């Protein structure tokens, strides 16, 4: 069992999310940065779909009441285990009674904590993920609170050493100097934008609003304009969809995206770049780069190869350290 000492601003249980229920209004949920979540799970010998903690902004602490094996990935929070510094993108054995503390993240927004065997939580519609809108999944469908007790499996695996990814192979997907470039495919209503607005989408920096959350990233910049008023019936939308409300300020739907909406769709962020949006903070800037469907598919293929290579490196390091014992 793990006791929540300090829950942080928003810490939730997440896995890969729900994929088959959007037709009845239930969104995907799941880890915002699925790439980091998958690596955290592999570091502790879990399936990449196992439930993890998604910790937003850090500033959280946990007391372990049983021995286990943990990993931290995503945003670096200068974590400590019993006041001893531990690096991000590493895994560690933990003893009962030890306390893990995470400071505020300096770069990036979301950190992932995996434990061997994954966090225990009831499956709702095939997933343990917390859906904050409908209040299902995770721990009663809500963020963690001080004093919560999180059930974890008894660890019966090998006595693994501390090890992790070197700086040279750690995924580089945090904003650089507060800015990130995301690629998008033009949407169904792209041609309804004026020529000047189409140019502004790809040439102007967009500041991330303070209203950004797991549902969507609101962007602020020079308002975009349509060639003529456009009324649409509500229709299905997905994470990554870039909508244009009447304000002219784009909104990118994120992991807790609505299942339908009526605003014009000017584009969709490619799946491989959604993890970039998971790590941007309010005040950071986003720049858009146009991408073809063919290129997006190739990028996704290369992304999976990159993840497989990281998994292979982890497996080789674990085997090497195990033989040295």
From TrEMBL:
Carboxyltransferase domain sequence ranges: 23-305
Gene3D superfamilies: Cyclophilin-like
Signal peptide residue numbers: none
Domain of life (superkingdom): Bacteria
Alphabetical UniProt keywords: ATP-binding, Hydrolase, Nucleotide-binding
InterPro entries with a match to the protein in the record: CT_A_B, Cyclophilin-like_dom_sf, PxpC
Pfam families: CT_A_B
Protein name: Biotin-dependent carboxyltransferase family protein
Highest classification ranks of the organism: Bacteria, Pseudomonadati, Pseudomonadota, Gammaproteobacteria, Oceanospirillales
């Amino acid at each position: 069992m793990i006791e929540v000492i300090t829950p942080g601003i928003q810490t939730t249980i997440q896995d890969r999310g729900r994929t088959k229920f959007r037709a009845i209004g239930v969104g995907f949920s799941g880890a915002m940065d699925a790439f980091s979540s998958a690596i955290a799970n592999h570091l502790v010998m879990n399936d990449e779909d196992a439930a993890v903690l998604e910790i937003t902004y850090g500033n959280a602490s946990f007391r372990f009441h049983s021995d286990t094996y943990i990993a931290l990935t995503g945003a670096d929070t200068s974590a400590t285990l019993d006041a001893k510094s531990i690096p991000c993108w590493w895994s560690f054995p933990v003893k009962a009674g030890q306390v893990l503390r995470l400071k505020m993240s300096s770069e990036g927004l979301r950190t992932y904590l995996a434990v061997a065997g994954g966090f225990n939580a009831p499956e709702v519609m095939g997933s343990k993920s917390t859906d904050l809108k409908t209040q299902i999944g995770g721990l009663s469908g809500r963020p963690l609170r001080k004093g919560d007790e999180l059930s974890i499996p008894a660890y019966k695996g090998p006595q693994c050493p501390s090890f992790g990814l070197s700086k040279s192979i750690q995924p580089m997907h945090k904003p650089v100097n507060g800015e990130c470039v995301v690629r998008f495919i033009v949407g169904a209503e792209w041609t309804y934008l004026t020529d000047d607005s189409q140019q502004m989408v790809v040439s102007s920096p967009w500041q991330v609003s303070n209203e950004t959350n797991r549902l969507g990233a609101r962007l602020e910049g020079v308002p975009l304009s349509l060639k003529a008023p456009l009324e649409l019936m509500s229709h299905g939308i997905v994470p990554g969809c870039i909508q244009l409300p009447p304000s002219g300020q784009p909104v990118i739907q994120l992991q807790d995206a609505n299942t339908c909406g009526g605003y014009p769709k000017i584009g969709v962020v490619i799946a491989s770049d959604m993890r970039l949006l998971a790590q941007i903070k309010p005040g950071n800037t986003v720049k858009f780069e146009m991408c073809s469907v063919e290129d997006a598919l190739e990028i996704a293929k290369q992304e999976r190869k990159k993840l497989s290579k990281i998994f292979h490196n982890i497996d080789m390091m674990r085997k090497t350290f195990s033989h040295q014992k």
